[in-house]
Amino acid sequence: MLDVIASMRKTRTPLPDAEITRRAGVNPQYLQRHRDLKAEAEVVRAHLADNRPRAAAAAAARKEAALEVESRMLLEQNQALRRDLETVRSELRTIRTRDLAAAARGDLDALPHRDAALEELRKERDQALAVGRRAEADLVALRSVVQRLMAENTRLLGGQTDAPGG
């Protein structure tokens, strides 16, 4: 299609839309559906006719058609990006779910190990408490011995001071 329009410009021969589509070998309605190409052909025809107002109108139509094409392309890209985003979100949800499930399985699998570790810690605590209780009992016994010794020392000291001074 662009080759036919370029040859129209090169040969300086204006062609109607029907002839352009025939030479391009496309459906006769092709230019009606592709306004940007139709506007390009109209710009060439206006330039060849040296009709400035027609050329300005054709240039404006070409710009508008190009903007419409660009707008459609951007909308399609936007839709593709939205689909990609939704796909990524879905994959992320799947990964999070899998990680949470693995963590839960890991926690459940670790329970027997944690139970054994807790039992070991409880045994160590109980042993430490027993040692503490024994030490406390020994301390009470020693305190009792110390008190008896102090009483004996006091009695002995009291008897010695009575004897020399008495």
Structural account:
This protein is 91% helix and 0% strand. It has 166 residues and is mainly α. The chain has a domain at 2-83. Helix 1 (2-11) packs parallel to helix 4 (35-49).
What are the SSEs and their pairings?
Layout: H1 2-11, H2 17-24, H3 30-33, H4 35-49, H5 52-165
Helix pairs in contact: 1-4, 4-5
Count of helical regions: 5
Structural class: mainly alpha
Poorly predicted residue ranges? none
In this structure, how is the largest beta sheet organized?
Answer: none
Oligomer: single chain
The amount of beta strand, in percent, is: under 5%
If you average the pLDDT, what whole number results? 84
Task: Give the number of DSSP strands.
Answer: 0
Helix content: over 70%
What is the gyration radius calculated from CA atoms? 51 Å
Order of helices and strands, N to C? HHHHH
**First-residue to last-residue Cα separation:** 144 Å
The backbone outline, from C-alpha atoms, is rod-shaped
